[in-house]
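Annex B. Sample input.
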Amino acid sequence: MKKKVFSVMATFALATCIAASNAEAATEEYTVKTGDSLWKIASLHKLTVDELKQMNNLTTDSIKVSQKLLVKKPAVTKQPEKQNAISTKEINKSLTVAKTTSSTSFFKPAEEKDKPLLPNLSKSAQDIQIASVEVALPLLDTPYVWAGVTPEGFDCSGFIYYVFTNAGLQLPRLDTISMFMNSQHVDEPVPGDLVFFENTYREGISHAGIYIGDGKFIHAGTKKVEIAAVDSAYWRDKFVGFTRFTQLQSVR
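Annex B, continued. Sample output.
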């Protein structure tokens, strides 16, 4: 009888340990220690400081010893989605636009369309701008994954990082705010430029995409990589401006 009771208790204890282990693996909490900083914790878990703050709803860089921080977002399960509304014809049109016009923005007067693609950039830099659109478009419908930087899943800054590094631009992994600060404002956007928005899920610069022409941009949305219009009802009021990576100025 004692042996049977011991066996049942052992089984229960083992099950409890397994459950606790699974729960810990699912949440991945980190307890702040003396000498820790957000940068140190973020680097340890392959995150940016911005991502770490977002995951824990932090509004400042201040943390306390023994404070628990979430350092891994639960995996996103891909849900069945309807096929993207953008047709192959529209995608091909975007690529053609990128290669043949200096700007397809709705902000640009029609008489300026015959100017060279990017007169202030080298041919190699122009090629990167074009290539970024070519890399980005086949990634439509890729699921959203927090901090994702691969075709398995992207967040908005991870998507831009992947696209431009594969288009030939040497670029560090930056968060959205850092990308904005590491780029220069442009009045007449061309395909391959960046478009920034504010006050989406937090105050200030909070989202970015890649301009593809005709007033549209491609980005990692809340569910997947998709194409949207800059002047649509949702994005119009959150629009900040168009920019271009400063690194493109040094590409020869």
